[in-house]
Amino acid sequence: MRIIVFSDTHGNFRVMKEIFEKNQDVSTFIFLGDGERELRQIRKLYPNKKILSVKGNCDFLDDSPLIGTYSYKNIKIIYTHGHRYNAKYSTDNLFYLAKENYAHILCFGHTHCRYYTYTEGVHMLNPGSASQPRDGNPPSYAFIDITDAGIMCSHVDLIKSPNKSDVLNFSSFR
Prior knowledge:
alpha/beta; 34% strand
């Protein structure tokens, strides 16, 4: 099963729509906040997609939760925007959130920077920003593949750069 994870669109409906257009065969999407207005429009365009979401620090009128969970088979995913866990300064609080809740995967946004690590049985993934990256990379999103062989997480550029492939930061199955 493939899950698309994206975050921090900040009013850019075009990039959010592009993510859905590029992943028409995917049924589950996780949005990590800061783009609730355009997400409302996407939900209308794609009523048959499972779109999970949390509130970001810029989603003032959104009544989404601050933390969400999703399970597929025996794999538990926790997702949050990250601002309440000081994600800009450290991933420690997020790691402990995952461990305390027996999660296999923790997804967060807020920093606008791509991030992936696998530590002590926890995959930690930040898809970067789909519209305003702050790490020198192109705008991006990520995917999680959950198979019998394991879990794979990877980042995907929204804008192709010369001499770069679509899929970056290939991570091995664990």
